[in-house]
Amino acid sequence: MKVLITGANGMLGQDLCPTFEDFGHELIETDIHNLDITDFNQVEKFISDKKPELIVHLAAYTNVDKAEEEQEKAELINAKGTENLAVMASRLDIPIIAISTDYVFDGTKKTPYLPNDKPCPINIYGKTKLMGEKAVLKHCKKFYIARTSWLYGHHGKNFVDTMLSLKDKEILKVVDDQIGTPTWTMDLSLALVKLLEKPYGIYHLSGGGRPTSWYNFAKEIFKCSNLEVNLKPCTTEEFPRPAKRPSYSVMDNGKMLRNWKLALKDYLALL
Asked: 257 in helix, strand or coil?
């Protein structure tokens, strides 16, 4: 299958592209240097010329805190850019996989979020990603919306690498009142390939296993790395950020991804 991938140079894209190639797909890799998804005329010409059989949309504005002051830019990329691709996918009658986020939820639920739960984002980033979801739902019949959470991978800045870089701090404080499940980009990439065997719809593709806090995630990172670190829990109030975060963003992944602790061990082994 000929697959157009946006955001191919990003953290997820750099793991997803070789994974799709391993499954025999022919790739059209794009990023801002060769396809500006916010320019409909460019999107229309590029996709009409390349004639892909599937679009996998990874490109996004992902700076959660900066989005609070750059709402227009975040909307342009996450909403308008996604809509441009959705329009072309519909016009060519081809499927689209659009990556979304746990941040479309407000975190007030006490049990894992299901794909059909009503979104209610509490920050600009989540709102713009939800706008992108709505664009796909509006224009496409053949679609997969794949929400993921707490993503980390070898090809981009992420929580695991940040924790390891701070291991020598006298005291390392990490938030203990935000709950979710970490997701390795390699596991997500495999799940996205398998998604093509499923019916069209909305899916939650985050790490499996027992939910954790950022503090306990950090604890597991250091434990697996055999590091003694002076790690202390703190509250969200003690570590204020421009964008609000959901206190609970656990998603029911339908057993499509393995236990996040097993994934973390494999990730650390490859470092």
From this structure: coil
The pTM for the full model equals 0.97
Q: Between β-strands 54-57 and 96-101, what pairing exists: parallel, antiparallel or unpaired?
A: parallel
Which are the catalytic amino acids? 125
**How many domains, in total, are found in the chain?**
1
pLDDT of 204 higher than 90: yes
C-alpha span between 243 and 123 (Å, rounded): 6
Domain that holds residue 234: 2-270
The helices-and-strands tally (H runs, E runs) of the chain is 9, 12
**Chain segment 98-107, per-residue pLDDT in tens:** 999 999 999 9
Residue 194 φ/ψ, nearest 5 degrees:
-70, -25
Q: What is the CATH number of the domain that holds 141?
A: 3.40.50.720
